[in-house]
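User: Hi! I'm working on a homework problem where we have to compare a predicted structure to a textbook description. Could you give me the structure for the chain below?
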Amino acid sequence: MAWTAPRTWNIGELVTKVIMDTHIRDNLNYLASTMEVWVPVTAAISTTNYPILSGHYGFVRLSSLNDEAVCVFRCPDNYGSIVTAKMIVSPVANQATANWDIETLYAAEGELINNHNEADAATTYNVIQDTYYGVDFSGILTALAAGDIVHCTILLADAIHDLSVYGFRFVYNIA
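Assistant: Happy to help. Predicted structure tokens:
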């Protein structure tokens, strides 16, 4: 369904069901066809002995090899399909081939946590310091279903530069 430019109404015009459906109902349905969920970082795992959670500022800082940030959420009951699934991050320095590994674990209630386990350890990122990036997870959520509990992890696979992780943006079409 696509957005239809709103009609310009004329005085004395006969309003029909077809006109109302096209310009009111269909446009309202279009506006309500997608939903967005923001998930702050749920956990951070550090390979060093110091805390990396910076809750006062609403992000975690990954600075050592194999440091991880995790976002956990439940896929909404009205989920139909993914529009956008991105971990929002900001590198602390410029880097031509930032190596961040991403992984998802997801399953329905009553299933093993890793019923679906997908990862991308091959992609590298050309990034600019203090710029927000959305690291795309949609390719590793291929069997996602309404009601699944989802763990999304980003791991610092090199120790060249720090990475700030803010949360997970999940936009989906309604079933």
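For your comparison, note the following. The helical segments are 17-31. The two ends are 13 Å apart (CA to CA). Good luck with the assignment!
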